[in-house]
Amino acid sequence: MIEADQLTRRFGARTAVDALTFSVPRTQIVGFLGPNGAGKSTTLKMLSGFLPPTSGTARIGGKDVVEDGLEARRLIGYMPESYPVHPEMRVDEFLHFRAEIKGVRRDRKKAVARAMELADISDVAKRLVGELSKGYKQRVGLADAVVASPPLLILDEPTEGLDPNQIQRFRDMLKSLAAEHTILLSTHIMQEVEAVCERVVIIHKGRIAADGPLEEVRAQLTGGERDLVLKLHPREHAAAWRDDPAAAAKALVEPVTGVSFREAVMDGDLADVTVRTADQDASIEALVARCVQGGLGVRALSPRGGSLERVFQALTGAEGDA
Description:
Helix content: 25-40%
Number of strands: 14
Structural class: alpha/beta
Shape: globular
Radius of gyration: 23 Å
């Protein structure tokens, strides 16, 4: 859906985006990450046709954003970081207006109703946009992005300023949209990416720092390995685990080829055991089998939280770009 090849943008002597090359497959949610000033918004503006590249090319659904700009823009629903609204218009009036601008000629009323349903704003259809809360205004922006049913949604910091409940509702909406739309999500919130994205592209100082499936990018910090958390119920071995969870976990993990012990802590009656593995499938299966054979209840197995944040910090440094 997106093909960027040596995409570059300069402002005078300053290079904001430096020869970016990446692609985004159809019907995926891809996180587009970078510290402040890394070139994220500039890249999104070039992909969306708002800003011409200095050099390089970008294609949306096979359409060049410069040579076939109008056709490329028809494929995009763009939600900028600062979403412009018309506060004096009612929500449904505003979306009808936006649908007309975007060339929705047939069944416009149906298209607006669908967009409001997807964005969960049907209950405020007759209210003035200017009277809405920040969360509802963000959802109006999402409805605008989807009203013409574009195959690609480009969202720039869509949850900025939302409270935790609003963020969760927004995440649920994005997941529901992913069945029919490709979504490029620009954000600096790592939890946002881990919650909804399948792939990530990280840029730093205008260049690609990492690009790939979420799990592969997580694994970069440990040289291809990854950390996993195994949540166990020790059952009849509870006393030994409470007395020394690290010793009990080491005795469990060390015989398993391809798995190394990292740490263990007790959380009530459950033990959280962190391990590192490179041979993902075979080693994990062997570890789980050993737990079951040893009478330990396996409650959950998940990637260690925060690993994407650690990769991000390692690739981009603690400071932002100028």
